[in-house]
Structures are given as structure tokens and as C-alpha cells.
Amino acid sequence: MSAFAAALGVLAADPNLGTDAIFRAGGTGPEIALRVLRSSPDRLTDAFGTTLVQATDVLTVAIAALPSIEAGDTFALGAEVLTVQHAERDAAGVAWRALCQR
Fold first, then answer.
1. Do the Cβ atoms of 25 and 67 come closer than 8 Å?
2. What letters, b where the CB count within 10 A reaches 16 and e where it falls short, cover 80-95?
3. CA distance 32 to 25
């Protein structure tokens, strides 16, 4: 395990940073319980000359916990279900950055 993978594990385990999630491939696959880091940055977009503020949800997930994430997969965080729109690996190959829709 690399230092980056170990650090991600520590961050996800921290109750102030990480959160429990249930992953389902395709939204209907078997449930996989894991810990994720969640951020919800606002993104500014332009539509017809008007600036819109969009809420987004980005999950950081250890590749060791989920070797594959595809668009359409879901994460349940409590009562909230997030659907993956796009997922990309980080430069170190340790974590997924999953952009989700509520």
C-alpha cells in the first residue's frame, strides 16, 4: 500500500470527513458498503447569457474499495441517492473522483 492509499484510508475513516455509503453498480447491482469523502462545490455555468449556480456532488472513493465505477452507478448516503455522471482516476492511481447528480 502506498503512502497516498494509506492517507486516503485515514481520511475516509475519520468521522468528520468520511461518510458511509452503499454502492450499486448500474443502480441495481449488489450492495457494497464502503466509506467515501464527499464534497459539494457549487459550479458556475452560463446559459443564454445568464450565470447559473449549480450544486454538484463529488465523491472520492478508494480504487482498492471499488476497482471500477461507471456512469449510472449509484451511491446511497443515508436517504440520499447520488447517480454517477462521470468518474476519473487521480494521478496517483489511488482514488476515483466521481461526479454525481442528486
1. no
2. eebebeebeeeeeebb
3. 9
**CA pair distance 59, 95, nearest whole angstrom:** 10
Record the pTM: 0.83
Q: CA of 85: how far to CAs of 48, 92, 100, in Å?
A: 23, 22, 5
pLDDT digits (tens, 9 = 90+) for 3-25: 878 888 888 888 889 999 999 99
Nearest in space to 64 (alpha carbons), one of 94, 38, 84: 94
Contact 98, 84 (CB under 8 A): yes
5's grid cell:
492509499
Cβ(2)–Cβ(10) below 8 Å: no
The 10 Å CB-count burial string (b at 16+, else e) for 11-37 is: bbeeeeebeebebbbeeeeeeeebbbb
d(CA 84, CA 11): 22
Residue pLDDT, tens place only, 66-92: 999 999 999 999 999 999 999 999 998
